Amino acid sequence: MTNPIPLHSRHRSVLPEWLALYYDRPIELTHGEGRHVWDADGNRYLDFFGGILTTMTAHALPEVTKAVAEQAGRIIHSSTLYLNRPMIELAERVSALSGIPDARVFFTTSGTEANDTALLLATTYRRSNQILAMRNSYHGRSFSTVSITGNRGWSPTSLSPLQTYYVHGAVRTRGPFAHLNDADFTAAAVADLEDVLGQARGGVAALIAEPVQGVGGFTSPPDGLYGAFREVLDRHGILWISDEVQTGWGRTGDHFWGWQAHAQNGPPDIITFAKGIGNGMSIGGVVARAEVMNCLDSNSISTFGGSPVTMAAGVANLGYLLEHDLQGNARRVGGLLLERLRAVCATVPAVREVRGRGLMAGLELTKPGTDQADSDAAAAVLEAARTGGLLLGKGGGHNTSVLRIAPPLSLTVAEAEEGAEILAEALRILN
After folding, report:
1. What is the pLDDT of residues 12-57, one digit of tens each?
2. CA 110 – CA 206 distance, rounded (Å)
3. 231: how many CB neighbours lie within 10 A of its CB?
């Protein structure tokens, strides 16, 4: 018998108050196909958020669902205490794609856990609990990752196992360096890094940075900034962790990894990943050069990281992405979508900036003629877009006023045009 109590009421009665839901009338998504999803009332939506950048290739991708079903029919779970063929196969592919020489891969169940592991490796390797992080950043919801998050809206406690220093540079169009050209911006950020290291007195373990900040509103520095940082880090023996939870696997179009826009001084020491690789299955992971990965001198396993089922999904999903050049599609269709969005927003005074690369776009909304974030406007457009049949995300370090757009990487030109048209109509409520 169907429970007569509305699902939203049941949600509120058993789940935490801080577990956010989108929309004044939250929706239950029941199924999806390609770039579309349906709710429990039968409404169809074009999905421009992909389960927070997690449905990377397509909803109900046959290659992935088949791989999951076949593996589940053999064995669902074994843990890392036994040899695991799908895990080894996926690790081999990720290692080869990482750009890190002599790489080792450790699988987790989420991006939070991946970043937590990266911090464990870096602090153990360097025998230091000092971490550099970027202002406006987000790296997860565990105790250690919350403590390095540079976005107050996602950091509920000031307690921390780490000593964190925050560095300028991840947000190009806000802050004290926004008026500078790219070269001078980078030089100023490097000088700030040097100054911060002077405060830390040389004992820092690692810098962790998102090449494009996700929760922060798809903000990014000029290309090459983290490569310039790398010169400074190398002089002090400090590790570079690239958080690729949202930027990995070709989403930015121009590069397979976000760090490759900053590659003039080589790859990071550690890469973290999650979200899209599993296309909805729970996969995270860490790639590091062997010397760093093998520095732990105590026992460690993972009960659920590297599950045979999730690894089978990852192998199938990554194979599909590479065989169908979805990175190239993100570059081509994403470029068209960004161009279309800029044209749409040119006549909307409330849009401060349209930014992004590939299929990763952000629309920052402010009170017209000011830099004051307008979260109410963002919420209103989110609702209007949903009414028009388009699902978007929200974010931004300045009061959640950025609309985040990150559809599956198989998005077609026609779907990009359709989404832009729905968004244009939704933005009209602000004029």
Report:
1. 999 999 999 999 999 999 999 999 999 999 999 999 999 999 999 9
2. 21
3. 11
